[in-house]
Amino acid sequence: MDERPIDQQLGARLRRRRRNLGLSQSQLASICGVGFQTIQKYECASVRMSANILWRAAEALEVP
Predict the structure, then answer these.
(1) Of 16, 54, 15, whose CA–CA distance to 34 is shortest?
(2) CB burial class (10 A; 0-12, 13-18, 19+) of residue 9?
(3) pLDDT exceeds 90 at position 51
């Protein structure tokens, strides 16, 4: 897939915040309703996040 800078930045911020909160990929995946491998793909920007998943992740990670 054609990686875009916004996807890379979003993935990096997702990983950084998840780690700061001490959440595993599996824990975040469970909250978002996806598999942990999907979280891995979001974090490395190989898959784009939908608005729905972005909203769920923001709530789980306690960010506006």
Answers:
(1) 54
(2) exposed
(3) yes
Are 51 and 58 in contact by the 8 Å Cβ rule? The answer is: no
Give the pLDDT mean for 32-47: 94
Reading the block at residue 28, the tokens are 């975040």
Q: How far apart are CA 20 and CA 24, in angstroms?
A: 10
Residue 6: pLDDT over 70: yes
Task: Please give the pLDDT value at position 42.
Answer: 95
CA atoms within 13 A on the CB side of 24: 6
> CA 47, CA 38: separation in Å to the nearest integer?
8
